[in-house]
Design brief:
Elements (H helix, E strand, L loop, with lengths): L3 H7 L10 H11 L12 H7 L4 H21 L1 H20 L7 H18 L5 H33 L5 E6 L2 E6 L8 E4 L8 E13 L1 H4 L5 E3 L16 E2 L4 E13 L5 H6 L14 H13 L7 H34 L7 H22 L3
Antiparallel strand pairs: 1-2, 1-3, 3-7, 4-5, 4-6, 4-7
Helix pairs in contact: 4-5, 4-6, 4-7, 4-12, 5-6, 11-12
Length: 370
């Protein structure tokens, strides 16, 4: 960040009257507008495929694949064997390769679609498998469309953030300008509740406290005060530096703008953002900063306290449902062993296991709350 002395040398700024009209135009040409480059939007196909990552959807896809393979075995053991090998190889590759693991549910969906279509074309349709796939498509489709609609509404609301006006001093007079019209060298007046519009340094301050949680993660407001004009040190810990996106918790101040747009700290951090975060690894401080900035610059839909409690309750009921389903599967498995279901034909044994698994899926679906 430029020091106050550098700003005054580069711009014909005055610490009392601010910039004149010509200086504003020159600064705009030289340093650009106070506008951040938009973060790339996540592709729609990727958002749709992510809907298959729900636990119940995974279970339904597994049930569909098993049902399809068993139905193909009924028609032809050779065809069923080929389907089993292809499905097993595809799932092994999806779950075995670290970079593909997050897309394993999508691979399951693709395999199920392929074999449902293949069975229908060869005259061996799997009606149970098809029914499950229809249910999966309906569930994921409704969830995707609902989220897509809400995202568009939140984007429209977020776009209005840029319509706020900033209090500046120009040509010796107090005025307001749009956020993206703030330029390097502008004198900005900040009051309690204001959001800092660009990176800058404090000229005057009265009991100024700043919420810098966006940059540092610390929720306790930090006191800021003027520093020498030739001080070049910067950073959130510097008493004289203010950064875009932080909030004035208390007091008033006069700030001179040092950086705008992508040259601000929040703009630099935003450059590290990408649509694909990759595999989860141990989070570094830099990654934490990037996540906070991404949350600031993109759609923010925080859960209400009631939603948080309902989510916790749903998780508890889900765990009970999974445990109950697992116990039922083990009970049916034990019953099958006692009745000799696994001592005869291999196909009958696989069919019995599939039936037990379907009962398990039914228990989970009816027990786990949406």
């Amino acid at each position: 960040m430029r020091s106050i002395k550098q700003i005054l040398n580069e711009q014909p700024a005055n610490l009392d009257s601010g910039l004149n009209s010509d200086a504003v135009a020159q600064s705009l040409v030289r340093f650009g507008p106070n506008r951040l480059t938009p973060i790339p939007r996540e592709p729609l196909w990727k958002k749709f495929l992510e809907k298959f990552d729900e636990p119940i959807i995974k279970i339904l896809l597994a049930a569909a694949l098993l049902s399809i393979v068993v139905d193909l075995f009924k028609a032809s053991k050779a065809l069923g064997g080929v389907a089993l090998v292809v499905v097993a190889a595809g799932l092994a590759a999806a779950f075995g390769v670290a970079k593909m693991r997050r897309w394993a549910p999508s691979v399951m969906f693709g395999l199920a679609i392929f074999w449902v279509v293949f069975g229908a074309l060869t005259g061996h349709p799997s009606y149970e498998g098809l029914a499950v796939m229809v249910a999966v498509v309906l569930a994921t489709g409704v969830a995707f469309l609902s989220e897509y609609k809400s995202d568009r509404e939140f984007e429209a609301l977020n776009a209005r953030k840029d319509e706020i006006h900033i209090k500046v001093t120009r040509n010796g007079a107090f005025t307001t300008v749009a956020l993206d019209e703030v330029v390097v060298g502008d004198l900005v007046t900040l009051e309690m509740g204001d959001e800092v519009p660009a990176d800058g340094r404090v000229i005057k301050a009265t009991d100024l406290y700043l919420d810098q949680s966006l940059m540092t993660g610390e929720s306790v407001p930090v006191k800021k005060s003027p520093r020498p004009q030739d001080e070049a040190d910067d950073g959130p810990e510097n008493l004289g530096c203010l950064y875009r996106g932080t909030q004035v918790a208390d007091g008033v101040a006069l700030m001179i703008v040092a950086e705008v747009g992508d040259a601000t700290m929040i703009g630099q951090i935003a450059k590290h953002l990408s649509a694909d975060d990759g595999e989860e690894e141990e989070e570094t401080d830099e990654q934490t900063d990037v996540k906070r900035v991404k949350k600031k610059l993109t759609i923010s839909k925080e859960q209400t306290p009631l939603q948080v409690k309902l989510t916790d309750l749903a998780d508890l009921i889900s765990k009970v449902g999974y445990i109950a389903a697992g116990l039922i599967f083990l009970a049916m498995l034990g019953f099958g062993i006692f009745k000799g279901k696994f001592t005869g034909d291999l196909f009958d044994a696989v069919k019995y296991l599939l039936d037990a698994f379907v009962y398990t899926v039914i228990v989970i679906v009816v027990a786990v709350p949406e």
